[in-house]
Amino acid sequence: MATITATITVSLTTPTRRSLTNSVNLRYLLFNSHSKFATLQRSFKSHKTRIAVSSSLSIDVPVKTAPPSFLDRIDTTFLHFAKYHGLGNDFVLIDNRDIIEPKISPEKAVQLCDRNFGVGADGVIFVLPGFNGTDYTMRIFNSDGSEPEMCGNGVRCFVKFVCQLENLHGRHSFTIHTGAGLIVPEILEDGNVRVDMGEPILKASDVPTKLPPNKDHAVVKSELDVDGIMWNVTCVSMGNPHCVTFSGKGFENLFVDELKLAEIGPNFEHHEMFPARTNTEFVQVLSDSHLKIRVWERGAGETLACGTGACATVVAAVLEGCAERNCTVDLPGGPLQIEWREKDNHVYMTGSAELVYYGSLPL
Ligand SMILES: N[C@H](CCC[C@H](N)C(=O)O)C(=O)O
């Protein structure tokens, strides 16, 4: 049996200047960092702890005014942002509704996206005022500072952020002006976002690619030599360029988990056949409505998900005859539901977008 006696005599004073004089039996006495209790005599008897408190308690706790929160600082020296992700494809989102030019430069975006020296993200997205009657404009800088035309996961994060900014709840649809034209996302009751991504662009010169068209104006399952390996590729633009491959010479199916993307991805991205560089999707066909892909993104490297890439993949799969128009596309970060709707030729993407945290940047 151990007896521990500790005696500390202090008095507790709160703003209502209350002091407590009493002896009470407490089973446990919780300390907290703002006040101190006690004279306490603690004895342990047969595993039952009784603590008798007998004292007059009083302590002068100076009531300090909290320093101003970084959120209260004058905005001219701080830039507030929100961090979102769409299936692990993550972005810094900036409220840019008050001016028509992005508040930070591509160079600053590169610093921000650095996962060691910055916030860490695949890109920075700006919520800008609308254009020609649209609700908003979206612009995005990749983590290498380049500016793509469109971002599928990013636009889902964009509308979730807008709802935070405008304090909107429930179903909402927006018109967004982007480098890929008009994009119409809708927040669904379950919190997922369905996006009308517009029509795919198949004309080779508009993707753009220098590969010669081999199916109408499009490049479908055409051979591309990448470092001596002949891949079969289909080229699709969703406003941004995509090179989609399902197979190659000597291998009819891909097992995407076995691919060394860090080695082969850059050679596709910078291939001379893609004058604007390209995003590349490596596709494993699980069924005619279920595809598994990994993506090497232009300007960002391998990402956990790529919304425009998933859209381009379903279009390419239909053109190559290996999938239906409505597919589940599994990406490392999670699934997207993609439909290339025959009646309007638009591609629809449905998936999640999540807020991770808010932050502030010294400008
Ligand atoms: N890196 C892409 C832009 C982001 C696309 C991707 N994150 C998506 O969700 O669509 C490009 O340069 O075309």
From TrEMBL:
Chief place where the protein resides: plastid
GO terms classed as biological process: lysine biosynthetic process via diaminopimelate
Alphabetized GO MF terms: diaminopimelate epimerase activity
Organism expressing this protein natively: Lupinus albus
EC number(s) given by UniProt: 5.1.1.7
Catalytic activity: (2S,6S)-2,6-diaminopimelate = meso-2,6-diaminopimelate
Protein name (database record): diaminopimelate epimerase
Subcellular location: Plastid, Chloroplast
Pathway membership: Amino-acid biosynthesis; L-lysine biosynthesis via DAP pathway; DL-2,6-diaminopimelate from LL-2,6-diaminopimelate: step 1/1
Family indicated by similarity: Belongs to the diaminopimelate epimerase family.
